Amino acid sequence: MAWLVARMAERGFRASVDEAGNAVGEIGEGPRHVVLLGHIDTVPGAIPVRVEGDELVGRGAVDAKGPLAAFVAAATAPVPGVRVTVVGAVEEESPTSKGARHRATLPAPDWCIIGEPSGWDGVAVAYKGRLVVRASLERAARHGAAPGPTCVEEALAFWASVRAQAETLAPGRSGSDPSAGDFEKSARGFDRSARGFDRVDCRLEGISSESDGLVERADLRIGYRVPPGLATDALLAEVSALATAHRGDARVRIEKVASEEPVRTSRGSALARAFARAISVSGGHASFKVKSGTSDMNVLARAWDCAMVAYGPGDSAYDHTPMERLSLAEYERSIGVLRAVLRRGAEIP
Length: 349
Description:
By secondary structure, the protein is of the alpha+beta class. It contains eight helices and 18 strands. The strands form five sheets. Strands 1-2-6-3-7-17 form a six-stranded mixed beta sheet. Strands 12-13-9-14 form a four-stranded antiparallel beta sheet, with helices on one face. A three-stranded antiparallel beta sheet has the order 4-5-18. Strand 1 and strand 2 (23-27) form a beta hairpin.
């Protein structure tokens, strides 16, 4: 963190570490305010840093130190009338999202760009939400030779019902506020022709069991990816109802572990149009993308009423993988796009 602050200060930023531990650099003056927020933390796994041909290899090259470095490079030359704040946020790769949540308590800027890999000619305008629950099953202990399923087998049967339930849930289509999270049970069941982004994804992330000789227990960690139109509280209510209706020998209790609401922003905003124009001028054709993962956009879009997209160099297929790498040519092109967008920032309507 101190290293990033020092490098921004060398480039003329007014740089410091904020109360949450974020590296923050401000540059330029004027009535227009643009926030460029990327995250500085990475998932575990040391990958030797090296350059292979045109690619920078190493943990975080794509997710998301590459986009954050592009932010700093693009903002180094101040744009008259525009104040730019670059934030290297902490704890994006954890449920707390401490860095973004702290920034969300501050006044909203005119524009906000989240640093995530979208490709130099791509712009992300939607992210799925996330819900993680723990399903705990508990029953009186039995002899190992007793007939019937074990507690673990009963837990796996409950998991099968959870997965089947997820396939019947779709966003409400009544035209109501998507944040209300209305559910509509599809008359046709799960529409497997739908795009992955439109589905409720449900995965078993972990399972454990124990017995103290009196009570048998089994715990399931279940993760959902939730499309816009569904609220996590409504999904939690559905799985809790399923636990209440469970007909096995064990009592099932549902506990929320973590959640982030899904988000979709406008591809017709002045910010999105500025990206489309900048990419076109650079010889590309802008593609607007939706992502199945989450990002700091899930936090900030609910707190700030401003135009917002996610952008950054890199192929997100390399996120969290042992082959994480970033094209240096793409990195350079993304800096040019960002500079053009910031110049348009002086004309924010």
